[in-house]
Amino acid sequence: MIGTPRVHWRLTDSTNERARELAGAGAPHGLVVTAGEQSAGRGRQGRAWTAPPGTALLLSVVLRDLRETLPLAAAVAVCEALPGLDCRIKWPNDVLVGGRKLAGILVEGRPQEGWAVLGIGLNVSVEEFSGELAVTATSLALEGHAASSNDHVLRSLLAALDARLADDPGDVLAAWRERDALRGERVRWRDGEGVAAGIDEGGALLVDTTGGQVALEAGEVHLLR
Ligand code: BTN
After folding, report:
1. pTM for this structure?
2. Dist. CA 109 → ligand 1 center (Å)
3. What residue owns the CA closest to ligand 1's atom 9?
4. Are 150 and 58 in contact (CB under 8 A)?
5. Which residue in 11, 32, 160, 175 is deepest, having the highest Cβ count within 10 Å?
6. What atom in ligand 1 is closest to the CA of residue 51?
């Protein structure tokens, strides 16, 4: 059962760091670490993840049943935990509403030791973002979502994760494709640009370029509007 046991910190550096420590010490599949505040929250691509205290759901899950579709399944689960919101997924797993980022996902693993940590940051009651985030980020409160309490969202998210993380890979891919934010859009990445054409069976992003179709296995793409 995802969410049992649960360890909560009022303040910690990073829930992913806490969960990694616990995983290394033998914590069971499904253990969840949550925090009210992080002093060194980690994002993808070496970036930081910040949120004012108490305004975001910050959680990390220890997983021992490792599936290739894990990063995609997690994004689908976040969307399904928030019925009523038109959530889209920007490859591989940014959760967007109205083109702005509502939630981010960071998977860190030690496959050779048989575990991975799934970290999720979901903006719940953030009323105002500063700097670049003012135009790129959103929160449940800003989207007028009814369930604006962290505990309510957490319960819903744990149930959705429980279902999707154990789901058939084909069903995960199908659900992800229905929420694809990039398909048909022009995208740019470090080495090129083209039109996003969905994901393949391994979760790689397909992009049609002037030189033919390429499959991006990892990294980040930017939307060109
Ligand atoms: C991203 O860059 O989009 C991923 C952000 C992931 C942030 C979450 S917050 C909870 C968990 N602990 C961390 O240090 N990072 C993840």
Report:
1. 0.96
2. 14
3. 121
4. no
5. 32
6. 9
Phi-psi region of 191 (alpha: psi -120 to 50; beta: other; left: phi over 0): alpha
The pLDDT of residue 148 is above 70: no
3 state DSSP class of 110: strand
As given in the structure block, the two tokens for residue 133 are 């985030």
* 95 strand-pairing partners: 89, 103
Helix (H, G, I), strand (E, B) or coil at 38: strand
Q: How far apart are the two ends of the chain, measured CA to CA in Å? A: 42
Residue 147 scores a pLDDT above 70: no
Q: How close is the Cα of 168 to the center of ligand 1, in Å? A: 25
Residue nearest to atom 11 of ligand 1 (CA): 119
Looking at residue 82, the DSSP 8-state letter turns out to be: S
Q: Is 60 in the pocket of ligand 1 (CB under 6 A)?
A: yes
- Say what the alpha-carbon torsion angle 59, 64, 70, 75 is, to the nearest 10 degrees: -20
pLDDT number for residue 146: 72
Q: Is the CB of 43 under 6 A from ligand 1?
A: yes
How far does residue 64's CA lie from ligand 1's centre (Å)?
19
